[in-house]
Amino acid sequence: MALEYLRKNDPTIAKLVHGELERQRNCIELIASENFISLPVMEAMGSVLSNKYAEGLPGARYYGGCHVVDDVETVAINRACELFGCKFANVQAHSGVSANIAAYLATVQPGDTVLGMSLAHGGHLSHGAGVNFSGMLYNVVHYGVSRETETIDMNTVEQLAKKFRPKMIIVGASSYPRTLDFAAFGRIAQEVGAYLLADIAHIAGLIAGGAHPSPLPFADICTSTTHKTLRGPRGGFLLSNDEELARRIDKAIFPGSQGGPLMHVIAAKAVSFAEALRPEFARYCEQILKNTQAIGRGMTDGGLRLVSGGSDNHLCLVDLTPASITGQEAERLLEGMGITANKNAIPFDTLSPNVASGLRVGTAAMTTRGFTEDESEQVGKLIAQAIFNRSDVVVAQKVRNAVMDLLAAHPLYPEL
Ligand code: DSN
Q1: Taking the chain, what is the end-to-end CA distance rounded to the nearest angstrom?
Q2: Residue 197 DSSP code
Q3: Which residue's CA is the closest to the ligand 1 atom numbered 2?
Q4: Catalytic residues
Q5: Which residue owns the Cα nearest ligand 1 atom 5?
Q6: Closest residue CA from atom 4 of ligand 1
Q7: Do residues 95 and 232 lie in contact, with contact meaning Cβ atoms separated by under 8 Å?
Q8: Which site from 197, 202, 254, 255 is most exposed, i.e. has the minimal number of CB atoms within 10 Å?
Q9: What tens digit of pLDDT does each residue of 98-137 get?
Q10: Of 212, 184, 185, nearest in space to 196 by CA
Q11: How far is the CA of 245 from the centre of ligand 1 (A)?
């Protein structure tokens, strides 16, 4: 990696950036919310656009000299609308949580009832967890998955909606391996007169690539991150087809909850939206789904159990209880062998989230790196072998060697 000026000016940080590149190169990345951005996305982020203050919206800013960044943001907005087939987009949200803050501000008042998926069953902090602003400011009721199927039971969602009459229903998850039934959520929201917020942070890329149904015909607002399956820079955005809601979203972002937009990140979002509009992105998403099936097969053949019995998207949630290992231990064990994944609570978990009985395994990053189905299945088998033979140093070394071979076959950022 060149880092010509950084090396001269701040060797400490240059060394750390290089160290992180080497770390990413030398592990199989299975964290379901991570991915590897393209070099054009990286260049847009590291650009002079970072220098510009542009509070407001294109054509209506609070600063002079905004004509260039106006064009950047307009391109990003237009590409987001084209990609997701909707009328309005706000691309200024700094993150997925920032996008959700804006969605709450645009729809509900503090104290209003909101129905969202429980964090313990795969939802997200900002869908009403008690330690988050959403749980502190709103009266949140949670739905989860059924004990029998480990999937969302739409009858339960409907019963809760009819009982508690929420002003907003949130559909979206961080560790749910199944297709979300946006049509059913839309019907329930209509029945009880609630707004429907679809938080598509994890599956945005799959939706853009046609590998998961879109919520847009049903949701009043969609919120998302750009950096997971969508493979853009770290950031957030919001979508809507409703003109009045779109106006409220814009105000909720600025001045409601943010100051100056990150124009360098908005440019990088525009680049990634254009990448996702290309036919090869749909092929990439298809490959993510195939790789998830394959890694799941490898893990179950090796003796592990997948929550809900499988996956329809980019991630598997592994129940580690049959292997008598916690998520925390498994995460550490695998990291030592060059496989990065994260411990994760499973539904009805008896352990604390810091320890957890599960492991979340995502395939978006390894698919970007070029892993095929055969290799993904092999990775699944290696995970199971490592876990079930964790006191055997010979197996550990074999797993480590196999991981190194797989990584060598798919170099990451060879240009850097
Ligand atoms: N931290 C993200 C994830 O890993 O899913 C959600 O915000």
Answers
A1: 4
A2: E
A3: 33
A4: 53, 55, 199, 225, 228, 234
A5: 174
A6: 33
A7: no
A8: 255
A9: 999 999 999 999 999 999 999 999 999 999 999 999 999 9
A10: 185
A11: 26
